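Anyone able to model this chain together with adenosine-5'-diphosphate?
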Amino acid sequence: CCNGSKTESFNEKKPTIKFTKLFINGEFVDSVSGKTFETIDPRNGEVIARVAEGDKEDIDLAVKAARAAFDHGPWPRMSGAERAKIMMKFADLIDQNTEELAALDCVDAGKLFSLGKAIDIPDVANTLRYYAGAADKIHGEVLKMSRPLHAYTLLEPIGVVGHIIPWNFPSTMFFVKASPSLAAGCTMIVKPAEQTPLSALYYAHLAKLAGIPDGVLNVVTGFGPTAGAAISSHMDIDKVSFTGSGEVGRQVMKAAAASNLKPVTLELGGKSPLIIFDDADIELASELAIIGILYNKGEVCVASSRVYVQEGIYDELVKKLVEKAKAWTVGDPFDPQVRQGPQVDKVQFEKVLSYIEHGKREGATLLTGGKAIGDKGYYIEPTIFTDVKDDMLILKDEIFGPVMALMKFKTVEEAIKSANNTTYGLAAGILTKNLDVANTVSRSLKAGTIWINCYFAFDHDCPFGGYKMSGFGKDLGLDGLHKYLQVKSVVTPLYNS
Ligand code: ADP
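re: yes, here you go
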């Protein structure tokens, strides 16, 4: 099938929506106000379900439960091995519900069902297992003091954590944040994005089945300016971990500072460069560049939205990229033949289209794509612009859609300069067989993750987070665990004379 014609013949897997209420202190409950909101299927704009709309009062209740579970409950007091056992059970339960969970993210976010089932959902179970493996290895160190003092550090859980998560990877982001904080012995309130509340509530149900004690993991669905803001400004939340836009990240940080000065970690947007040198494998390069921008319909904070190609292979690569973009199948994300579903909602859909219009107006050359597909749902054609100048909006802003900006360069120095010419610094890719070039460029780029001859090469053990205005504080790896721990120094005289 070709781009533009939505495939029809496949067996659609419709999820049953079992959980639509807030999960507080181990129970599914209505919001205090009794209000609910619609969650929408981006394939057709229809309502999937109504979900409880949490607000400040509900966050207060969730914080009370999390505080009691932290101060008096078993979770932080258990041995790491006991916590690990429960986390492993949680992971097994996720594995047993892979299809249902992938279907929820498919219908709620327009994510590909086949990839969810094969990759995203099994991967979140493995993220839980990775951190379960760390839970019994959290310890401080003995210090070498300069005076006759015995001193050591304790690593203690930071306390009640608020996780504010985005809609592009509802399952992945839930576990990138919940897993290390569970391992650390923290208790938490998770606020999923209002566009994608469904899988988070299902995870809450599985957490209870796994034996996570009441109050440890609470899920409050609702909107950002109400439920989200109540988390960042709460006086009894000890830390906020946020992933989302830079604009909201600033608000979260301000609210955290203005309330109880809770530490904040921010994983914000990106405008990640992929630099392709003349000696790169051209087939691999075109494949990575296309996947880098079109995977998850470009709703990826590390999308390779700026592709810099050295002049010697530019023409050949452009040809390949356009061919591949035209052959990329857009359609119903339940269809196993489809590689790109709809944008998450109407707002994002219109935002991406307006950036495309901007690009045209600013004088960039549209090589392929540039339009919405069909009259139902939020589908957009894979789009490639070239002749994109530094001051154009489509090169500066994070579009968060299937829109690539393609540029030509001559020298290594020029590539480094252009790639760093952004306020963001989340990730970057370098494709070359020349080790000197790879070493020089990887050390010169101001970005938190550098992929050499690969792209999207994530792993649980690999810390992920931004430089510059892409935020600070790492998710994943042991760095991702340490942000939920605090260091206490204990000092006592060696001799009592
Ligand atoms: P995007 O622009 O990708 O939709 P946002 O930054 O708006 O991302 O949203 C990311 C998360 O932040 C969502 O869970 C959203 O509800 C939440 N959020 C939005 N506004 C606020 C706010 N003022 N305070 C706290 N959280 C917010």
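Residues 164-166, 191, 193-194, 223-225, 228-229, 232, 244-245, 248, 251-252 surround adenosine-5'-diphosphate (CB under 6 Å).
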